[in-house]
Design a protein that fits this description.
The chain is 24% helix and 30% strand. The protein has 482 residues and is α+β, with helices and mostly antiparallel strands.
Length: 482
């Protein structure tokens, strides 16, 4: 065998081995968990097997549509005995879900509804670059399947991620597209109160002012009449009263990532339960945190993370001191006890928010970490092992928003960090093979990279590292089969 044939054989062997390893991992992963729940929900009553352990109450989970995957969002409910109670994928995405004001087995949710293109044939939504959709607030009876629409509005600029039903005729809305919070009378359709982010924050903060500026993803109407609002792109949780922003109550600040980093779904714990405190899914920091307010300022009173957590989007403190968690890229919804141990877990793809019925709205009925003595937990470097530390080192090189975006929206549900790295390794091997083949063609062929690289050895070193990652992935897959 000559040198060229040997190189070709090596490239082909490694490429095929990585591809087969990826296929093997996909087969071993089995059916997507959400598809299993959909089939179980359609099974006759009494014939289901449990898909998760027993819990004291119905657990309802919403999932986000991965636009690049061309799939619908879902709402899934699990019975206390671990069977699937309800499943629907009627809307593009399901966002916030809360217990309904009435009914022990009813919930209220906000979702994004796809519209027929003819509905948006005129007006601002006729622009082909704008999705044709509507934001809807609906009440769902999980026992009968009856759906009642409470409010809806065409989504000209963005999807609402959260609403808070105040009473039978008023809803508090977090409007991402308008960078505003408003209270609407659902009977008359009149907006009776509005607060805009630009009225209190400079346009230089957050994201691009003419695009996704503040990304308001959560709003909560507090018992004392104030409003808590999550400004994701400003890395802060703000409190509003009748006069506007209460600056001395703001938690976090722009780019102060040690406090919060593009967080989701903060939940307020009132003074009656040991607060004021706020439980937050600190999304881009891959952790859960709680901040206690004392002497006019906030201090962190609780932190939790493990080596699997990635892009958490919700954390609810339950009355028994446990915490119900939604881990979006970790593809799971789970429950922690006061010691920080996982005591209940169910796999869910693209989970956005979870609610345990019968425990109050979100964290309102749960105690603060300080009152209940809830233990913090964080995986330290020496607990990860060599492989875990290598993974952590590589992940630190990638901006969290890029990594979470790829895993959450682009790649299929079964792919984790190493699977995605194997895809890039395969691409790197094929690219290196193509470059070698082009060099063999002769000097008449010139290859120009999209970016100028002064030292070609850097490129070849990167390709070699990707190839080694591919070899490691193949070996790990093989060892798992033995």
């Amino acid at each position: 065998m000559n040198r060229k044939s040997a190189y070709r054989a090596a490239f082909a062997t490694l490429s095929i081995a990585i591809a087969l390893a990826l296929v093997t991992q996909m087969v071993l992963a089995g059916a997507a968990p959400n598809a299993v729940y959909e089939r179980r929900a359609d099974a006759p009553s009494g014939s289901q097997d449990a898909v998760v352990g027993e819990r004291g109450g119905i657990t309802v989970v919403t999932t986000q549509n991965g636009d690049m995957r061309s799939v619908s969002g879902e709402l899934i409910a699990f019975n206390p005995n671990g069977t699937v109670r309800y499943h629907t994928d009627a809307h593009s995405t399901y966002w916030d879900v809360d217990p309904a004001l009435t009914g022990s087995a009813s919930v209220t949710y906000v979702a994004t509804e796809r519209l027929n293109a003819s509905v948006c044939a005129s007006g601002p939504l006729s622009d082909p670059g704008v999705n044709c959709r509507r934001n809807v607030v609906e009440r769902l009876n999980l026992s009968t399947g009856e759906v009642t629409r409470l409010y809806s509005h065409r989504a000209e600029n963005g999807r609402w991620h959260d609403v808070d039903v105040i009473d039978d005729s008023h809803v508090l809305v977090a409007d991402i597209g308008a960078d505003a919070v408003f209270v609407v009378n659902t009977t008359s359709g009149v907006r009776e109160w509005t607060w805009t982010v630009e009225s209190d924050l400079p346009v230089e903060s957050g994201g691009a002012y003419d695009a996704d500026w503040s990304h308001i993803n959560d709003v909560e109407y507090l018992e004392d009449g104030r409003v808590m609002v999550d400004l994701r792109n400003q890395d802060r949780v703000a409190f509003l009263n009748g006069s506007g922003l209460m600056e001395n109550w703001t938690l976090g600040s722009e780019d102060e990532y040690g406090v919060l980093r593009e967080q989701h779904n903060p939940d307020y714990i009132p003074a009656s339960e040991g607060g004021p405190a706020v439980v937050v899914a600190d999304s881009e920091n891959d952790r859960l945190v709680e901040y206690q307010r004392e002497n006019g300022s906030w201090h962190r009173s609780w932190t939790w993370r493990d080596d699997r957590m990635q892009w958490p989007r919700d954390a609810d403190r339950l009355p028994n001191g446990n915490t119900l968690v939604t881990d979006t890229v970790g593809d799971r919804v789970f429950e922690l006890d006061e010691s920080g141990d996982v005591v209940w877990s169910v796999p869910v793809d693209r989970a956005y928010e979870a609610e345990r019925l019968g425990t109050g709205d979100e964290s309102a009925g749960g105690p603060s970490a300080e009152r209940a003595g809830i233990a913090s937990h964080a995986v330290e470097t020496d607990e990860r092992g060599v492989v875990g530390n290598v993974e952590a080192g590589i992940r630190n090189l990638v901006p969290p928003v890029v990594e979470n975006g790829l895993l959450g929206y682009f790649f299929p549900w079964w792919m984790g960090f190493w699977d995605v790295l194997a895809v890039f390794a395969l691409a790197g091997v094929l690219l290196a093979w193509a470059a070698v083949e082009l060099r063999w063609v002769g000097p008449s062929v010139t290859v120009q990279f999209p970016v100028e690289v002064e030292n070609a050895s850097v490129v070849w070193s990167l390709l070699l590292l990707l190839a080694l990652a591919g070899v490691a992935y193949v070996l790990d897959t093989v060892s798992g089969l033995l």
